[in-house]
Design a protein that fits this description.
It is built from 10 helices and no strands. By secondary structure, the chain is mainly alpha-helical. The longest helix has 51 residues.
Length: 296
C-alpha cells in the first residue's frame, strides 16, 4: 500500500490545527514518504539544478543562443518533473492511480501556466508601450511602472489564494470538474480567504526560514563563482577556483533543491487539511441551513 497514515480530513480545524496535522503527517510517515518519492524528488532536484546552473552561467558569462535554448528546454523538463512529483505526493494522500493524479496535476499546471503567460504578456505589452511612447527613457523613469508591477503581482497572489482550496478539491474528489475550480470552487475558497491566507502565510514563513538555512551552501558557491568571474574579467586575477568547482556547484544545487522538494510537501499537506476543513465547514453550514428550513 502506498497510502500513508493520516488523520481524518472530514473535520473542521483551525489554521494552527491544519499546520499541526500537516507537520504530524509529514514526520510520522517520513520513511514511507521518502521511500516512495525520493526518485521523483531527485529528478526535480537535478532539473532545477541544471536550470539554475544555466541561468547562473548566463548571468556571469553572458547569454547566447545555445544557453537560451538549453535553459528553455531545462525549464520545460523542470515543470514536467515537478508535476509528476506533485502527482506522486497526492497519490500517497488520495490513493488514486498515478496516471489519474498526473493527468489532473498536469491540467492544473497547464491552466496556471496559461494564466501566468497571459498576465506576463499584458505586463510586457504595457512596458513596451510605455518605453516606445516615452523616449528617451532612463532607468529612473521605470520606477513607478516597476512599483505598480510589484504591487499588482502581490494582489494577483492574494486573489489566487482561493485556488489552494479549489486545486486540492479537484485532486481529491473524482467527480470534481476542471471548470469548477474557476467558478464554484473558487467562490467557496473566497468565502474562507482569511482562513487560507493565515494558514498559508504561517506555512510559507516556516518553510522559508528552513529554506534560507538550507540554501546557505548554494549561496556560498554561487558567490565564490561570481567573485571569481569578476576578478578574471575586470581585474585580471587568476580564477583561483579548482577545475572541479563546477561539479561541486552542481552537487550543492542538487542537494539543496532535493531538500526543498520535501519542504514543499509540508505546504501540500497544509493545503490538504485546509481543503478538508473548509469542505467540512461548508457541509455543516448546508446541514444547518437545511435544518433551519425544516423547522421554520
Amino acid at each position: 500500500m502506498d497510502n500513508i497514515k493520516k488523520s481524518s480530513i472530514s473535520k473542521s480545524r483551525s489554521y494552527t490545527a491544519c499546520l499541526s496535522e500537516a507537520h504530524r503527517m509529514l514526520f510520522d510517515n517520513f520513511r514511507v514518504i521518502f521511500s516512495r518519492t525520493w526518485v521523483y524528488a531527485a529528478a526535480v532536484a537535478v532539473m532545477w539544478a541544471v536550470f539554475a546552473s544555466l541561468v547562473t552561467h548566463a548571468l556571469l558569462y553572458g547569454l547566447n543562443t545555445g544557453i537560451s535554448i538549453a535553459a528553455d528546454a531545462a525549464l520545460l523538463l523542470t515543470v514536467a518533473a515537478s508535476v509528476v512529483f506533485f502527482a506522486r505526493v497526492m497519490h500517497l494522500v488520495n490513493g488514486r492511480p498515478m496516471k489519474w493524479n498526473i493527468a489532473r496535476s498536469a491540467a492544473l499546471a497547464a491552466c496556471f501556466i496559461a494564466l501566468i503567460v497571459v498576465i506576463a504578456a499584458v505586463c510586457a505589452a504595457i512596458f513596451y508601450g510605455y518605453v516606445v511612447n516615452s523616449q528617451p527613457v532612463y532607468p529612473v523613469d521605470l520606477r513607478p511602472l516597476a512599483t505598480a508591477t510589484t504591487v499588482s503581482s502581490v494582489v494577483f497572489v492574494l486573489i489566487m489564494l482561493p485556488y489552494v482550496y479549489a486545486s486540492i478539491k479537484y485532486l481529491t474528489e473524482p467527480e470534481s470538474k476542471l471548470g469548477n475550480i474557476l467558478t464554484k470552487a473558487y467562490v467557496t475558497g473566497l468565502r474562507h480567504w482569511g482562513f487560507i491566507f493565515t494558514a498559508m502565510l504561517l506555512a510559507v514563513l516556516c518553510v522559508l526560514v528552513v529554506s534560507l538555512f538550507v540554501s546557505i551552501p548554494m549561496h556560498i558557491v554561487t558567490t565564490a563563482n561570481a567573485y571569481s568571474v569578476f576578478g578574471v574579467n575586470f581585474i585580471g586575477d587568476p580564477t583561483g577556483l579548482p577545475s572541479y568547482f563546477p561539479f561541486i556547484e552542481c552537487s550543492v544545487f542538487v542537494l539543496t533543491f532535493f531538500i526543498w522538494a520535501y519542504l514543499d510537501i509540508f505546504i501540500i499537506f497544509v493545503s490538504y487539511f485546509l481543503y478538508g476543513s473548509i469542505a467540512t465547514k461548508e457541509k455543516e453550514k448546508r446541514a444547518f441551513l437545511k435544518n433551519e428550513k425544516q423547522t421554520a
